[in-house]
Amino acid sequence: MNIHYRKAAMCLDQGGVIAYPTEAVWGLGCDPWDVHAVARLLELKQRDPAKGLIVIAGTLQQVEPWLANLSAAQQATLKASWPGPRTWLVPDVRIAPPWVRGEHASIALRVSDHPVVQGVCAAFGGPMVSTSANPAGKAPARNALEVRRYFGAALDTIVPGETGGLDRPTEIRDLLTGEIARHG
Q1: Which of 34, 105, 138, 147 has the most CB atoms at less than 10 Å from its CB?
Q2: For 105-115, what is the mean pLDDT?
Q3: Between the CA of residue 18 and those of 13, 51, 67, 117, 172, what are the distances in Å?
Q4: Phi-psi bin for 10: left (phi > 0), alpha (psi -120 to 50), beta?
Q5: How far apart are CA 3 and CA 144, in angstroms?
Q6: How confident is the model at residue 1, as a pLDDT?
Q7: Residue whose C-alpha is closest to residue 52's, from 117, 118, 110, 97
Q8: CA distance 21 to 164
Q9: How many CB atoms lie within 10 A of CB 56?
Q10: In 62-170, where do the E strands start and end?
């Protein structure tokens, strides 16, 4: 396994905040179950906790607990777009911690096909928080240099790699209504 993925996983295990490339922009990540890590990430980003955060995974199995109560048709919809660059708002079945879900009754989930995300999640053994690597109100970082300019030494590690080449962050769509919450 890639040494950078193992280092990132160790950081996540220890409550750290990491930066890594995603499909379109660089992301900030942490362990979604660690309230202190999420609070630190939100502080670095200057993000309102009520907005909630995306949980990103490298495999479908890593998000299966959130899919258990969905209909077969809803599960088929998700599986048809994953792994890939689509984030879905899925009804939360009291699994997501409130510090990740924010003020919402749903959880934002994505199973990524990006090799760095897949590698980090495999090394970590589960999903992680994913939010764009930028302070609130600033443009998302498109490379590691921009991440360093925004956050300097405040991050625990920066996982090397390239973005997946998309021009815009991933689409976010509501599973129940089909409405687009963010265009990709």
Answers
A1: 147
A2: 96
A3: 11, 20, 27, 11, 22
A4: alpha
A5: 18
A6: 67
A7: 97
A8: 8
A9: 30
A10: 86-91, 106-111, 128-132, 157-158
Helix, strand, or coil (residue 141) = coil
Q: Which of 27, 25, 67 is nearest to 157 (CA)?
A: 27
Tell me the angle at which helices 115-124 and 3-13 cross, rounded to the nearest 10 degrees.
50
Q: Rounded to the nearest 5°, which phi and psi values hold at 159?
A: -85, 120
Dihedral angle sign, alpha carbons of residues 87, 24, 98, 47: negative
pTM above threshold 0.90: yes
Could you give the CA distance from residue 60 to residue 111 in angstroms, rounded to a whole number? 6
Residue 28 is encoded by which pair of tokens? 């900030």
List all residues 6 or more positions away from 10 whose beta carbon is below 8 Å from its beta carbon. Answer: none
Cα–Cα distance measured from residue 175 to residue 184, given in angstroms and rounded to the nearest whole number: 16
What digits encode the pLDDT tens for the residues 151-179? Answer: 999 999 999 999 998 888 888 999 999 99
Over residues 6-29, the pLDDT tens digits come to 999 999 999 999 999 999 999 999
